[in-house]
Amino acid sequence: MNVLMIHGAGGGAWEWAAWKNVFDAHGATAHAIDLQPGEQGLAATTLKDYQRQVDVALSVLPRPRVAIGASLGGLLAAACGERADALVLVNALPPSPWARSLEPRQWPAIESWGAQARFDGTRRALADADPATRLFAYRRWRDESGRVLSEAQAGIDVSPPTCPRLFVLSEADDDVPPALNLEWAGAWRADVITAPTATHVGPLLGRCASGVARDAVRWLQSRLSPR
């Protein structure tokens, strides 16, 4: 099993360290992508720029191949889902029509999550993480394209892929309402794993991360094993 892990807005491949350890221990080959700004710079970067990177990275992996995405990365994984043999979406930003239910927000040309990072903000965002992980994340947040965030918030059309689908939902997610993703999962006839006390990024960086990753890899093994 070859796995592509796609990070969320303002993050990076580093977010998947706990998941990569679990997947490696279960015999899977995990690759975590670092999304790059478009040729015209971060402010001009579009969702399509990121989607093309994911599509290329996924298409070169040997089969069976899996796309796993968190938050914005979940939306990108879903958009490239037909390239995958299985799909895992972790607190993913939803496509249309569910995106219309997200809280409206205006984004600057560049969201300075890296340049203006504050440890107190990281501590609040990672309330379910240990102190070492909070410090690790605080030092690695990056700036993000406001155009990408605006396009994602507006919603894009994504058709359900034909491969098996798993949604991972945090019940304490303050960024993407879990009820919204549960509705999306139902419409896509997907399986669901819930993380009862996890925050939006908790399944990747919180204390439950390794346990959630084990649940995900076992689900994948059950769905991709020869019948």
Tell me what you see in this structure:
The chain has 227 residues and is of the alpha/beta class. The protein has a single domain (2-224), classed as Rossmann fold, CATH 3.40.50. The chain has helices at 17-25, 47-59, 72-79, 119-125, 131-138, 146-154, 178-187, 202-205, 209-224, and strands at 2-6, 29-33, 65-70, 86-90, 110-111, 144-145, 165-170, 191-195. Helix 3 (72-79) links the parallel strand 3 (65-70) and strand 4. Helix 1 (17-25) packs across helix 9. The longest helix is centred in the C-terminal third of the chain and has 16 residues, at 209-224. It is globular. The protein starts with a strand and ends with a helix. The relative contact order is 0.18.
- Residue runs with pLDDT of under 50 for 5 or more positions: none
- Helix-strand pattern: EHEHEHEEHHEHEHEHH
Tell me which CATH architecture applies here: 3-Layer(aba) Sandwich
What fraction of the residues are assigned to beta strands by DSSP? Answer: 15-25%
Approximate shape: globular
Fourth-tier CATH superfamily name: Alpha/Beta hydrolase fold, catalytic domain
Structural class: alpha/beta
Rg over CA atoms, rounded to whole Å, is 16 Å
Give me the side-by-side strand order of the main sheet: 2-1-3-4-7-8
| Number of discrete domains | 1
Write the CATH fold name: Rossmann fold
- Count of β-strands: 8
Helices, by number, come to 9
